[in-house]
Structure to design on (78 residues):
């Protein structure tokens, strides 16, 4: 269910990725924001996305995660 919220966020940011990448991103995102294992992870993430401050922080986290991921992929192929 929470992956649907992440899908919504990524679609709003116009980012498309594989299911595996989404799962990895989701796990790191909830760990980073300290909501892993919360009873209402889905609602907490959804509410955070609506808040302008947290929305900015979530967007920055996702963008930096993608940049890091791209660097790792490029280094593997060198």
């Amino acid at each position: 269910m929470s992956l649907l919220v992440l899908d919504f966020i990524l679609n709003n940011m116009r980012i498309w990725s594989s299911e595996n990448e989404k799962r990895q991103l989701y796990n790191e995102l909830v760990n980073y924001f300290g909501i892993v294992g919360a009873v209402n992870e889905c609602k907490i993430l959804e509410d955070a996305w609506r808040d302008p401050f947290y929305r900015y922080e979530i967007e920055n986290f996702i963008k930096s995660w993608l940049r890091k991921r791209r660097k790792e992929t490029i280094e593997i192929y060198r």
Q: What stands out?
A: The chain is about 80% helix and 0% strand. The longest helix spans residues 52-77.
